[in-house]
Specification:
With 406 residues, the chain is of the alpha+beta class. The protein has helices at residues 2-11, 67-72, 136-167, 173-199, 204-210, 390-404; strands at 14-16, 19-21, 77-79, 81-97, 102-107, 111-116, 123-124, 129-134, 219-223, 228-233, 240-241, 245-251, 255-262, 275-279, 283-295, 302-309, 320-337, 342-344, 347-354, 357-362, 364-368, 372-377, 384-386. Strand 14 and strand 15 form a beta hairpin.
Length: 406
């Protein structure tokens, strides 16, 4: 045995470039070993050697942080607590206009466009002028109305005279009755002419401005029936348009619809009036306004409609969106935010606040709803855990372990 040790020591004498290097005896502890008892000596890396090594309580705690250091690191805390897990289901959808807030503005008479006041995208108020047409048909209708007014005025004057004469026994009753009938006929002609103009879009104010005026008989003003924005415009200045052609489409985009397709198995968790989350160009809360009672024969899906507010103007017609509905609510004894959970050496851990910093806790995970996760073992309700920037603590711990491994 002794001869073997001497031979091994001699082999450690190496010649490099004509220079000899000899390992010092104290760097070869096994040369001083006479048996198993030598294994208690330190190996140069902290293994063995009594109370010294990685497990020593004298080592610096890598997760020791003061309150100021926690604040500077941007770490925020949240208590583990009892609460509810909200299971959700998400469906794809498409943004469309609310049909009750869309108006197709038509030229109710043939004519020539002589003025266009609004362009695509312009905001309009209810009753605001969009375009002006000149129409022979409109001129005829206005002429009939004015002629009926004048005939009625003349017939009324004649009737008043005949009534006075009949009351004074100067005129016969037959003349009086004929005059009264003429007034009634004149009023009927006025009503017919007024209704014809109403069919062209004239309201009471338009007729009041028209009374007794022969100017602009051929003019037809196209006005918006609702407030909103011009989303479509057809026709150009000087173009001749037939009657009933849609010149403008005006939509109120302050409230929009999201149409989503839902599997029949998910319909049981959706009710009209439910509040849901809508995600697209922005995240907003919506309300289910329609759940179709019919399943499409081809897709085997049913349609739901969610109404959202678009006061910010972020949403546009045709945008893709997703609708998230609550499908179940379950109780859990201990919940932490999902952001608090880190992966360390294939283990799930959280960092629990202690008086002098943080403590790494290995945990057993339970159910999750995407925002909160159930902790079945490792953390008690009421303990504070790092949430925001918890990865800072993970990085600090990994750094310390890497330094100790060398």
């Amino acid at each position: 045995m002794r001869n073997s040790l001497i031979a091994l020591a001699a082999g450690l004498i190496v010649g490099i470039g004509g220079t000899l290097f000899v390992a010092a005896p104290e760097k070869l502890p096994f040369l001083h070993s006479d048996g198993p008892a030598s294994h208690g000596a330190e190996d140069g890396h902290g293994h063995g050697g009594g109370n010294r090594g990685h497990g020593s309580e004298a080592e610096e705690n890598p997760l020791k942080l003061s309150d100021d250091q926690v604040t500077q690191s941007g770490i925020s805390l949240s208590p583990a607590r009892e609460g509810e897990l909200v299971r959700t289901t998400t469906f794809p959808g498409n943004v469309v206009a609310n049909p009750d807030q869309v108006a197709a503005v038509a030229a109710k008479s043939s004519g020539v466009i002589v003025d266009l006041r609004k362009r695509l995208g312009d905001a309009v108020a209810k009753g605001e002028l969009l375009a002006v047409l000149e129409s022979r048909e409109i001129a005829e209708a206005k002429g009939e109305f004015l002629a009926a007014q004048r005939s009625e005025a003349l017939a009324r004057t004649t009737f008043e005279r005949e009534r006075n004469l009949w009351e004074k026994k100067i005129s016969s009753e037959q003349d009086y009755l004929q005059a009264r009938a003429a007034v009634e006929e004149a009023r009927i002609r006025i009503d017919l002419a007024r209704q014809r103009l109403a069919a062209f879009g004239f309201n009471g104010n338009d007729l009041s401005r028209l009374n007794g005026s022969n100017s602009g008989l051929q003019v037809l003003e196209i006005r918006s029936p609702i407030a909103g924005r011009v989303v479509e415009r057809r026709g150009v200045l000087g173009a001749s348009v037939p009657s009933e052609i849609e010149l403008f489409t005006v939509a109120d985009l302050s409230k929009l619809w999201i149409e989503a397709a839902v599997a029949p198995s998910d319909l049981a968790s959706i009710r009209e009036g439910d509040l849901v989350a809508a995600d697209g160009p922005a995240k907003v809360e919506g309300k289910v306004v329609f759940v179709s009672p019919v399943v499409d024969r081809e897709t085997r899906l049913a349609k739901i409609v969610v109404q959202i507010s678009n006061d910010s103007g972020n949403w546009r017609l045709g945008d893709f969106a997703s609708v998230t509905v609550k499908s179940a609510i379950e109780r859990a004894a201990v919940l932490v935010p999902k952001a608090a959970i880190q992966r360390l050496k294939k283990e799930s851990v959280v960092f629990v606040r202690t008086p002098d910093g943080f403590e790494k806790r290995e945990i057993v995970l339970g159910r999750s709803d995407g925002n909160q996760t159930e902790i079945r073992f490792g953390v008690e309700a009421g303990e504070e855990v790092a949430v925001v920037n918890s990865f800072v603590l993970k990085a600090q711990l990994e750094k310390a372990e890497a330094e100790h491994s060398h």
